[in-house]
Amino acid sequence: MSSDDVKLILEEIKKDRNRLERKEKDLKEIEEKLTSKLEKVASLTRDEAKKELLDVIQKNLTVDIAKKIRQGEERIKLEARDKAREILADAMKHGATTYVAEYTVSTVSVDSEEAKGRIIGREGRNIRSFEKETGVEIELDEGNVIRLSSFDSIRREIARRSLEILLKDTRIQPSRIEEVVRQVKSQMEDILLEEGKKIVQECGVFNLPIEVIKLIGRFKFRTSYGQNLGLHTIEETKIGVAIAAEIGANTEVVRLGCLLHDIGKVVTDVEGNHVDAGVTTVKRFGFPKEVVAAVSEHHEDKPFSSTESVIVWIADAISGSRPGARYEPYENYVKRMTKIEEISGSFSGVEQAIAFQAGRDVRIIVRPEEVEEDKLTVLANDIARRLEKEAEYAGQVKVTVIRETRAQATTAAK
């Protein structure tokens, strides 16, 4: 190929490039004209149009996302409710215990009628002496059982142990009865330690201070609304630990929190209610702050600070409120509840007073036109102070005053 041919080819390429550049320029001018026309028609710049388009897309996405979230929340609620039921039911099954709690009667087995005769003594002098020394009533029926009856469980335990010793000793007479009962009373600290060990071992807790174990031993001889405190503590601890294990909470904090939550009920050297006395006691023995919090919050006197505190509260409620756990004479119960409601409802502006939770929770509904919002706290405190003076109750009474206003409107009939 000659140089002339090459020149011709290059000139043709140059012409083609110039022609393409002119067409590109023409296309840009047309695009700009069209864009300008669109902007005039839509009254939007290109950036504004882009932003509006993105806003529409974002809005559509937000609606879809919100719908998905709502659907997910509903599904989670249903699943969580079912799962919660399963956890609680399984935990309550774990609450079964073999620990034996006696309420107002203890029994002692005898091997013969002759042994019964020795307990009675000539003209009943041995029985009279025994009842005088122990403060417990002896009931003798047909059969090989002697019943010891008393409202005081510590007296009843002293009597039971004394009687078991006397039955092994054929020398039963008033002086011997006095001696044995005196010995058993002097051994009461050892008895408390023995009973405390049974409770803590049943709860799976070890290496506690001796003083704490003795306090826990008093649980066997303490009841709340007829529910034995030792039995309640074991049952609650097993329920709480099962719940904690199921949801991944700290089982050791829950175990100690459940075991010690009511220790204030058997502490006699600390002033205040059983929650305050319990908190003071567990702090004195150096228990972890999480355990102290669980004891402090188990009646919701303070907001829950941890999942473990909530579990202790739940386990306590399950054990205390299950059917048959607690009881008291129905007439006394009705009288006490009625008294609490009468006192609470006697204040000016109160429309209705309702007692719940065996009198531990009182809800006061006030008339909003008579009681202003800033007077609610004062009214709640006044009611609580009067209940302290005039009402009979166990533990504490939580007074909640509710002031509610409502607005109503009716549509036209169609």
Structural commentary:
The protein has 414 residues and is mainly alpha-helical. Among the domains are: 105-186, Ribosomal Protein S8, Chain: A, domain 1 (2-Layer Sandwich); 190-321, Hypothetical protein af1432, CATH 1.10.3210.10; 331-403, 2-Layer Sandwich (GMP Synthetase, Chain A, domain 3), CATH 3.30.300.30. Helix content is 62%, strand content 9%. The protein has 15 helices and eight strands. Strands 1-3-2 form a three-stranded antiparallel β-sheet, with helices on one face. The mean pLDDT is 80.
Topology diagram in text:
Layout lengths: L2 H40 L3 H49 L10 E5 L3 H8 L4 H10 L2 E4 L4 E5 L3 H16 L5 H13 L1 H16 L6 H8 L5 E2 L2 E2 H19 L3 H10 L13 H11 L4 H9 L9 H15 L8 H16 L4 E7 L4 E6 L9 H15 L7 E6 L11
Parallel strand pairs: 7-8
Antiparallel strand pairs: 1-3, 2-3, 4-5, 6-7
